[in-house]
From TrEMBL:
Any single Gene Ontology cellular-component annotation: cytosol
One protein family per Pfam: AsnC_trans_reg
InterPro entries for this protein: AsnC-type_HTH_dom (IPR000485), Dimeric_a/b-barrel (IPR011008), Tscrpt_reg_AsnC-like (IPR019888), Tscrpt_reg_AsnC/Lrp_C (IPR019887), WH-like_DNA-bd_sf (IPR036388), WH_DNA-bd_sf (IPR036390)
Superkingdom of origin organism: Bacteria
HTH asnC-type domain span: 9-69
GO molecular function, one term: sequence-specific DNA binding
SMART domains (alphabetical): HTH_ASNC
Keyword presence, DNA-binding: yes
Keyword Iron-sulfur: no
Listed name of the protein: Winged helix-turn-helix transcriptional regulator
Gene3D superfamilies on file: 3.30.70.920, Winged helix-like DNA-binding domain superfamily/Winged helix DNA-binding domain
Keywords: DNA-binding, Transcription, Transcription regulation
GO BP of this protein: response to amino acid
Length: 158
């Protein structure tokens, strides 16, 4: 199955994904036992989900525990508006960026970043402020993160 043909995830796919969200290292044997299907079925479904880009298995790092001390939300205002895509592509390439989206609100792009410290954050803001089209930025610091999670797939069942 190629990347051009995507399969709509069914209940079994969502169950597999839910188990992997809880523990990305869980074995196919354990998942198969819990879902009462064969290991081959789990392996086939898993490989398809990987191939289609529905899931990727990565080690999730707690940013605070490894030394990231400065988290921020940056609202980016772009003028002229025709430069939004160009600016977004440049910002997306920056390693500090953990989230980037075009918005419909008062600003054009929402950027979440994780930096080593406040000096690193200031350097980041200065760098993006120099991009052609960046008219203004507005930064909100996160003092404490209470939840950092993947979406709960069970919300799709309601």
């Amino acid at each position: 199955m190629g990347k051009n043909k995507l399969t709509v995830p069914d209940d079994l796919d969502f169950s597999i994904l839910t188990h992997l969200q809880k523990d990305g290292r869980v074995s196919f044997t354990v998942i198969a036992d819990k879902l009462n299907v064969s290991i081959g079925t789990i392996r086939t479904r898993f490989n398809r989900l990987i191939e289609e880009g529905t899931i990727s298995i990565v080690g999730r790092v707690d940013p605070d525990k490894v030394g990231f001390r400065s988290y921020a939300h940056i609202a980016v205002y772009i003028r002229p508006a025709t430069l939004k895509e160009q600016v977004a592509r440049r910002i997306a390439q920056m390693p500090e960026v953990s989230f980037l989206a075009m918005t419909s609100g008062a600003y054009d792009l929402e950027v979440n970043v994780m930096c080593r410290d406040n000096d690193h954050l200031v350097a980041f803001i200065n760098e993006i402020s120099a991009f052609e089209g960046v008219f203004q930025t507005n930064t909100t610091m996160y003092f404490k993160v209470y939840k950092y999670a993947q979406p709960d797939l069970m919300l799709l069942k309601q």
